[in-house]
Amino acid sequence: MARVALVTGGTRGIGATISTALQAAGYRVAANYGGSEEPARKFHSQTGIQTYKFSVADYAATGEGIARIGKELGPIDVVVNNAGITRDGFLHRMKPEQWSEVIATNLSSCFNVSRHVIEGMRERGFGRIVNISSINGQKGQFGQTNYSAAKAGMLGFTRALALENASRGITVNAIAPGYIKTEMVAAMPAEQLAKVVATIPVGRLGEASDVARCVVFLAADEAGFITGATFTVNGAQYIAA
Ligand code: NDP
């Protein structure tokens, strides 16, 4: 029986590429989304992957969504906590909502999702949790105290959860992508884009497939000895110790 994988924010952007990469690797994939109906509909019709709308920032709604996935696809073996938002602004101008929305969607979501799957994973003796953090959680970024705090928080969450579940066949790892060529990045003016690329030693932006490749590697049954780690996928833009 194929393993079941949940990808949060899995119907567009990097998440969509992760969903299709897992599908290609033989997983039954549940792609969650928060509210953008048109991309979700298009994604489903192009890939056949089942989509599930719920807010990962909401504990109860996440529980209901995960229960629905369990009924329709089976118990979840692999979770990719990919959903994320930005609400940028310098701290001296930041509104409390900018802070709390980013923490809820990027960080509390990891608790909300993991809490609802972890008991089942422990009972079954197998689980893979991959948390999509960011280079900006490792090094900080102007205008992103909220996002950098949430993404750094995901790294601590990853390590602690890895320790708690290491003896139960469950691995928990983080991926910290650098600049990835999503629609938003690709739409930047060419001159601005060239300046960004000049800071990346590999000499190009990352592709969503560079992140997805890492997820598929970590999700594998054979990756059971790799846990509590952070994988940078950033073309050497920032090399963390
Ligand atoms: P996008 O903005 O393209 O997509 C974000 C996804 O998250 C969407 O599918 C969106 O759903 C979903 N989402 C947002 N809020 C919620 C919510 N409350 N509940 C459920 N789903 C939600 O992001 P990217 O593909 O660019 O980024 C994916 C991840 O990678 C993020 O965590 C981001 O922080 C991280 N990252 C991205 C980098 C980049 O260069 N792009 C670099 C480093 C890290 P919907 O479609 O319904 O809106």
Can you describe what's shown?
This protein is α/β, with parallel strands linked by helices and 241 residues long. The protein has one domain (4-233): NAD(P)-binding Rossmann-like Domain (Rossmann fold). The protein is 49% helix and 15% strand. It is built from nine helices and seven strands; from the N terminus they run βαβαβαβαβααβαααβ. It has helices at 13-24, 37-47, 59-73, 96-124, 135-139, 145-165, 183-186, 190-197, 208-219; strands at 4-7, 28-33, 50-53, 78-81, 127-132, 170-177, 230-233. A seven-stranded parallel sheet has the order 3-2-1-4-5-6-7, with helices on both faces. Helix 1 links the parallel strand 1 and strand 2 (28-33). Helix 1 (13-24) packs across helix 9 (208-219). It is globular, with a radius of gyration of 17 Å. The mean pLDDT is 97. Bound molecules: NADPH dihydro-nicotinamide-adenine-dinucleotide phosphate (NDP).
Mean pLDDT: 97
The rounded distance between the terminal residues' Cα atoms is 39 Å
Large-scale geometry: globular
> Roughly how much helix do the residues carry, as a percent range?
40-55%
CATH architecture: 3-Layer(aba) Sandwich
Q: How many domains, as an integer?
A: 1
Please name the CATH topology.
Answer: Rossmann fold
Strand runs, count: 7
The largest pleated sheet is described as:
7 strands, parallel
CATH class: Alpha Beta
* Secondary structure category: alpha/beta
Spans of 5+ residues with little confidence (pLDDT < 50)?
none
Strand order of the largest sheet: 3-2-1-4-5-6-7
Q: Give the helices and strands as they follow along the chain.
A: EHEHEHEHEHHEHHHE
Strand content: 5-15%
Task: Count up the helices.
Answer: 9
Assembly context of the chains? single chain
Bound molecules: NADPH dihydro-nicotinamide-adenine-dinucleotide phosphate
